[in-house]
């Protein structure tokens, strides 16, 4: 088991974990990050650590607040095994436990995501990854931003099973409207180039329609006696001007994104060490891990 401590200053429960008896768990490694990096970067660090040291057949990714119900782990493992370990299997969220307003906002996020990328999204981090895909996943640069979106963008095979969201055991969830907005944009940044291209194409099509409408107004005014409202042509030209600005802006964003691809990206499997302060092993050792029991990791490699 790998526990990622995302730079927390609350040590509640740490003594219980360290003094507990876990006969069915060979080893527990606590990966402590130097500072709070956010949920997705913490997950990326954990995935990279597992890919580097773990020798297990599967990797289960889940939050530690019990909102991801451990009861579904056997079903996820069975679904992955049924695919002959060829697919990552997500716990699809068929029922959520948040407020009505949050559910409405999350529904809106899913629709925007589908519109922008052409793909549905209804899962979080809770998933099972077969061993041979773990190392590939750890080498996806977009993993820093959004776990499920990075898997979709990399075209790794995946599936999902329906699950219900559990109730948080301790404390209050820090996921609010502001964090949901950040989370949504993090997912969209994985498809930033596709999003910019779609916006630009939509603006081009809109400009074409507006150009046709403008030409029709000119013909009507010059060759017919049909009265034309004076401000209609000005309105069309103004909207066309806005569409041209959108085209130019989206085009520049797309060029910048494509140009940045020439720069070497940060890869979780290579760069996660920068964020790790230390790794401690409790509950003995096991041959499922190659890492030593206690290891202080440097800021870089």
Automatic annotation (TrEMBL):
Residues 1-131 form the Glycosyltransferase 2-like domain. Keywords: Cell membrane, Glycosyltransferase, Lipopolysaccharide biosynthesis, Membrane, Transferase, Transmembrane, Transmembrane helix. Signal peptide: none annotated. GO terms for molecular function: undecaprenyl-phosphate 4-deoxy-4-formamido-L-arabinose transferase activity. GO terms for biological process: lipopolysaccharide biosynthetic process. The keyword Disulfide bond does not apply. InterPro entries: Glyco_trans_2-like, Glycosyltransferase_2, Nucleotide-diphossugar_trans. One of its GO terms (cellular component) is plasma membrane. The chain crosses the membrane at residues 177-194, 231-260. PANTHER family: UNDECAPRENYL-PHOSPHATE 4-DEOXY-4-FORMAMIDO-L-ARABINOSE TRANSFERASE, UNDECAPRENYL-PHOSPHATE 4-DEOXY-4-FORMAMIDO-L-ARABINOSE TRANSFERASE-RELATED. This is Glycosyltransferase. It comes from Paramagnetospirillum magneticum (strain ATCC 700264 / AMB-1) (Magnetospirillum magneticum).
């Amino acid at each position: 088991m790998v526990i990622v401590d995302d730079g927390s200053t609350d040590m509640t429960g740490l003594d219980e974990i360290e003094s507990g008896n876990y006969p069915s768990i060979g080893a527990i490694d606590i990966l402590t990050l130097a500072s709070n990096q956010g949920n997705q970067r913490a997950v990326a660090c954990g995935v990279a650590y597992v890919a580097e040291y773990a020798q297990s057949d599967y990797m289960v990714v889940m939050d530690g607040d019990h909102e991801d119900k451990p009861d579904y782990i056997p079903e996820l493992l069975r679904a992955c095994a049924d695919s002959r370990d060829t697919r990552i299997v997500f716990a699809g969220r068929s029922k959520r436990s948040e407020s009505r307003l949050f559910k409405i906002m999350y529904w809106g996020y899913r629709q925007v995501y589908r519109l922008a990328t052409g793909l549905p999204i209804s899962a979080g981090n809770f998933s099972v990854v077969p061993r041979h895909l773990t190392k590939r996943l750890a080498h996806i640069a977009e993993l820093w931003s959004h776990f499920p979106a990075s898997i979709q963008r990399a075209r790794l095979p995946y599936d999902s099973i329906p699950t219900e969201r559990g109730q948080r055991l301790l404390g209050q969830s820090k996921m609010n409207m502001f964090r949901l907005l950040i989370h949504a944009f993090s997912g969209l940044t994985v498809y930033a180039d596709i999003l910019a291209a779609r916006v630009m194409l939509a603006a081009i099509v809109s400009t074409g329609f507006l150009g046709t409408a403008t030409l029709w107004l000119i013909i009507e005014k010059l060759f017919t006696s049909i009265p034309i409202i004076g401000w209609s042509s000005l309105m069309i030209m103004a909207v066309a001007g806005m569409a041209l600005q959108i085209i130019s802006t989206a085009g520049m964003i797309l060029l910048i994104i494509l140009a940045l691809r020439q720069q070497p990206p940060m890869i979780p499997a290579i760069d996660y060490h920068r964020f790790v302060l230390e790794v401690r092993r409790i509950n003995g050792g096991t041959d499922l891990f190659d890492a030593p029991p206690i290891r202080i990791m440097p800021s870089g490699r």
